[in-house]
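check these tokens.
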Amino acid sequence: MFERNSDGTVFDPTAQSGALRQESPVDACLPAAEWNVTRPIPCRLLQETRYRLPEAAQYGRYYQSLSKYDVPATTSVLDQARIDATVLFCQAHIAQDAVIADLGCGDGALLGGFKAAGWQALQGLDPAPLSAQCALERYGVGGIHRASMAEADRVLDLSRVDLVCSMAVLEHLPNLRSDLQALCRHLSLGRIALVGMSQGARAVLNFAITAPQQVACVVLDGPPDLFGADAADSAARAQYRALVRTGGIDAFRHAWLNHPLMRLRTRDPSAHQALRAMIERYPGRDLAAAAVENTKDPLPAQLASLQVPTLVITGAHDVAERIAAADVLARLLPRAERATVPEAGHLPNLDNPTAYNGIVRAFLEHHSSASG
């Protein structure tokens, strides 16, 4: 989430929720270059696996037939924490007469939070059939359009929008790369900073290789092995698919919560609660789908020629394979910096959010100002 003021300042309202991390689906983008980035984004934009996402038409059919908004529901603990942190930050930095648009607004919970805090010029879009109805009934928010992210410029006048929100939705975009490029063009963002966490490193690197002129800098957090034999990973995915087929998604969620990558070192109960909430909301569509190869990982030669400032970061107690993979990338990428978060495992912004945010913030601020 970001907002551009008349003086060019960019605010990231989600930064105050640095202890919250979305482990299923990465990465996030912040505008850079002529922008002054004041906060890192502690969430993920996409979880890029080696399996193909459904085609756009398939997503369209799904949202036209049903969605989670078709049944009564409450806002999860994690989502409410994000909303509260976002609204609190915006109260200090965003004028009450600002025009706010939420792309992928769901049932309107975030817009409802803005309305309760005093903002009135609110609008949003979502492909789900009942989103507009739910937003009006639950939060008294109108101005919701039924459309996809790719149609944002058609249904909304983005030139008049002061604050654009897109919270926990980008992982659902089957054409993420082209949609992100189009969104950047429509918002006149120029160059952006990308943060790819875990499997999201694949999406970030592929985007940077495809459009390096649009990328100011990159953060790779706990990246996987992009070049070694992935027999173990393939076997694990096959095992989890079988578990979903035989035991259902709840059986997988229980197993995944106990996976070494999900093991927290912190004793903070709110971090453990956030992690459980993230895993509970993971739908498992990629595990239920057939195993089809997705876009290929970048080749070593492509990365060796990528002239984009890159921070490669891991927790000090991440699993050995991820630390080794991060070391390989840090040596291969010509403008890479390597950082380690103390007292943290694979989820460093849950284990040690203060140290994590400090490292990422310093990197983003330095390279965004340098590129501007």
Notes: Residues 1-52 have pLDDT under 50 and may be disordered. The chain has two domains: 1-53+175-372, 55-173.
